[in-house]
């Protein structure tokens, strides 16, 4: 192990890159538990090994040699659940129960949607331990159903163990998307095939903030997905709401999410329009002004090398969105690209605000909702800036 990697592991970083491994005593296979020794040959950490990946080890435990077994899993799950007790209300039944590395379980995600639970695995090691995971979750949470989601990098290898993406591990099959609540509002989540585990739970607090800014406003939600921000805006008293997304499937889900909330008189009264379009083109070509614009595009930089293109895309989006914002209006711009830092993203948005020549103020800068804690720099992927443009005198 290189000195730098040793130091970083001791400081609690959960990843070891392959180029920092000095020596291996045998060729490992993906998904095996790997033991890491320091330069004095003393135990340093244990983690899941990935063959042929630049991210060679995801660390499960550092400092003390422990057995990674069902008891270990149960202890980790119990700790994560206890940290989220405050979210467990009748009004919010959709949230992240375990956030991977940040909850000491690298590559393991567990989300709750009412009585359904979805685990998403990003490391083959977890697939090998699936029976223990399932038993622990059933014991601690008694889910009505538990669904398995697999990240693309482990899907093929998982087949050899008899597991498929979207598989029902236990409980009742879901006939349709499951319905859950966020701050009293109802939403559906396609937990079998939907993006992530079915919903973008990490934006919950931003959605609530947008609700607070929406009274009397014409709201535009760009990259709307299933209309999360749109429903909140309507609940907050928006005058009208428009949702733009390239996916018909996502927009149909947005319509259903409005229908799910028809007992809310405020939402029922709001005119909601959907536009199936490429957001870049739509922003450039459509006419009309809005008082609040939400921009929440998908990740633009999955690799470090894609960063310049991502920044240029963010810049274009911000520029075109600002052009559509009325006097006194607000821009809410998010980035979920891990390779773009908060500072870089905020500066890109602000550069376009300055370029517009309009007087503007930063209202807020925010990150993830608290069920997505951040324990190491790379985990800080979501950043959002709220900018208000002054009314012309
Ligand atoms: N704001 C949403 C999450 C957005 S996810 C929420 O809070 O739930 C990103 C969305 O962007 C996806 O729904 C995807 O279909 C859409 N998308 C991706 N590329 C697009 C494009 N070029 N134009 C419009 N929408 C796009």
How is the secondary structure organized here?
Blueprint: H1 3-10, E1 15-17, E2 33-37, E3 43-49, E4 55-62, H2 70-83, E5 94-99, E6 108-113, E7 116-121, H3 124-128, H4 130-141, E8 145-150, H5 152-159, E9 167-171, E10 178-182, E11 185-189, H6 204-213, E12 218-222, H7 228-235, E13 240-245, H8 248-260, H9 265-269, E14 271-276, H10 279-285, E15 290-295, H11 307-322, E16 325-335, H12 342-355, E17 360-366, E18 383-389
The structure holds S-adenosyl-L-homocysteine.
Molecular structure report:
The strands form four sheets. Strands 14-13-12-15-16-18-17 form a seven-stranded mixed beta sheet, sandwiched between helices. Strands 5-6-7-8-9 form a five-stranded mixed beta sheet. The chain has helices at 3-10, 70-83, 124-128, 130-141, 152-159, 204-213, 228-235, 248-260, 265-269, 279-285, 307-322, 342-355, and strands at residues 15-17, 33-37, 43-49, 55-62, 94-99, 108-113, 116-121, 145-150, 167-171, 178-182, 185-189, 218-222, 240-245, 271-276, 290-295, 325-335, 360-366, 383-389. It has 393 residues and is an alpha/beta fold. The protein folds into three domains: 3-62, Roll (Archaeosine Trna-guanine Transglycosylase, Chain: A, domain 4); 70-179, Transcription Regulator spoIIAA, CATH 3.30.750.80; 200-389, Vaccinia Virus protein VP39 (Rossmann fold), CATH 3.40.50.150. Bound molecules: S-adenosyl-L-homocysteine.
């Amino acid at each position: 192990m290189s000195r730098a990697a040793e130091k970083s592991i001791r400081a609690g970083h959960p990843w070891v890159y392959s180029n920092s491994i000095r020596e291996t005593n045998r060729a490992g296979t993906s998904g095996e538990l790997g033991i890491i020794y320091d330069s004095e040959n003393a135990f340093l950490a244990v983690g899941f090994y990935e063959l042929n990946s630049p991210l060679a080890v995801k660390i499960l435990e550092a400092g003390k040699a422990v057995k990674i077994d069902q008891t270990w899993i149960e202890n980790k799950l119990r700790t994560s659940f206890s940290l989220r007790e405050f979210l467990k209300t009748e009004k919010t039944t959709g949230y992240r129960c375990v956030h991977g590395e940040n909850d000491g379980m690298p590559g393991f995600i567990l989300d709750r949607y009412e009585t359904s639970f979805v685990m998403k695995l990003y490391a083959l090691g977890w697939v090998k331990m699936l029976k223990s995971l399932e038993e622990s979750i059933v014991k601690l949470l008694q889910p009505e159903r538990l669904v398995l989601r697999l990240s693309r990098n482990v899907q093929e290898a998982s087949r050899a163990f008899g597991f498929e993406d979207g598989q029902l591990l236990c409980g009742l099959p879901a006939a349709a998307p499951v319905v859950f609540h966020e701050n009293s509002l109802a939403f559906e989540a396609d937990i079998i095939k939907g993006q992530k585990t079915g919903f973008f739970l990490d934006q919950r607090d931003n959605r609530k903030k947008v609700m607070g800014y929406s009274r009397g406003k014409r709201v535009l939600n760009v990259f709307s997905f299933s209309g999360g921000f749109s429903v909140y805006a309507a609940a907050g008293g928006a005058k009208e709401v428009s949702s733009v997304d390239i996916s018909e499937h996502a927009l149909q889900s947005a319509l259903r999410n409005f229908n799910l909330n028809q007992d809310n008189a405020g939402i029922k009264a709001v005119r909601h329009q959907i536009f199936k379009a490429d957001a870049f083109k739509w922003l450039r070509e459509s006419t009309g002004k809005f008082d609040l614009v939400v921009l929440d595009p998908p990740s633009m930089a999955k690799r470090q090398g894609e960063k310049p293109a991502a920044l240029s895309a963010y810049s274009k989006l911000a520029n075109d969105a600002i052009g559509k914002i009325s006097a006194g209006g607000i821009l809410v711009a998010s980035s979920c690209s891990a390779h773009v830092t908060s500072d870089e993203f905020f500066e890109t948005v602000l550069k376009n605000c300055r370029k517009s020549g309009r007087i503007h103020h930063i209202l807020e800068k925010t990150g993830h909702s608290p069920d997505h804690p951040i324990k190491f720099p790379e985990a800080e992927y979501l950043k959002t800036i709220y900018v208000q443009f002054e009314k012309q005198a």
